[in-house]
Amino acid sequence: MSSTTRPDLTAVPETTLWTLWQRAVEARRPDALLHDPKAVELVDRIDYPFADRFGTSALQSRLQALRVGCFDREVADFLAREPRGTVVCLGEGLETQFWRVDNGRAHWLSVDLPEAVALREELLPPGPRRRHLAADATDLSAWADEVDRDRAVLITAQGLLMYLPPARVRDLIAACAERFPGGSLVLDAVPRWFARLTRTGKMRTAGYRAPAMPWAMDAHERDKLRTASPAVTAVRDVRPTAARGLLAPLLPLTLTVPPLSTHRPTVTVLDFAARPAH
Question: Kind of pairing, strands 232-238 and 153-157?
């Protein structure tokens, strides 16, 4: 398919092209950990120097696939329990999760900055069960009322929170917990050593330098997320379940043996207290 779109994204919004590229690189592999033909299609449609900018690291694409797989599994489990639920995707960019796990009945709301939503609408137009909203994902007054309260709600924040100041991360968690009783939030975090590299400009790939990441969390710190609000009732670690190649023998060690297990990227689920019965 010929290129049809030339994106004009910089800084944090440009990271959606970075993660899209990693998913497509992995999806093209014969032994891919992630089946994502929509990501491959988008890369083919976008006029952008992906390889020159981001490189073609098999390790990066595999690590990205492991993270994505954690989110996919949580969303799929939610939809199995709540087939007509709503998935709210904060800072979604060009994530293609809908095409990987949608069940044909759920509702999806994508909330992102105006420039990211404009690109998403051009490449992935909304449908009867998929809506896009141009808004600050951290400002619930801009999007929370768009969510049907009669449906179960799962909120995802994939590749978002690390770009926010720590106080803003805490405020967003608290606001979601208090605004969506009985719901859950799935989020990811980079370890503190990785965030430090981004803040000193040392996290580079080919012709690209990752934006600074103000917020980070080591794996052993996840229970601190509960202190954001009394409405956060449970904190659960989501671990990758599949790896191939060099990652296969390393993954169990990364998950269980310190210091690797405490200084690794994480995906976490926060459950929110249900509304008291009247």
Answer: unpaired
Taking residue 157's Cβ as centre, other Cβ atoms within 10 Å add up to 26
The pLDDT-based confidence of 128 (bands split at 50, 70, 90) is very high
pLDDT at 1: 41
Give ∠ CA 201-46-73 in degrees, rounded to 5: 75
Nearest to 156 by CA among 211, 104, 112, 194: 112
Say whether pLDDT at 34 is over 70. yes
In DSSP terms, 90 is beta-bridged to 111, 157
CATH topology of domain 74-272: Rossmann fold (3.40.50)
Task: Enumerate the H helices of 28-146 as residue ranges.
Answer: 37-45, 50-54, 58-81, 97-101, 114-123
Q: Which of 4-18, 70-84, 100-114 has the lowest mean pLDDT?
A: 4-18
Buried-exposed string 107-140: b where 16+ CB fall within 10 A, e elsewhere: bbbbbbbeebbbbbeebbeeeebbebebbebbeb
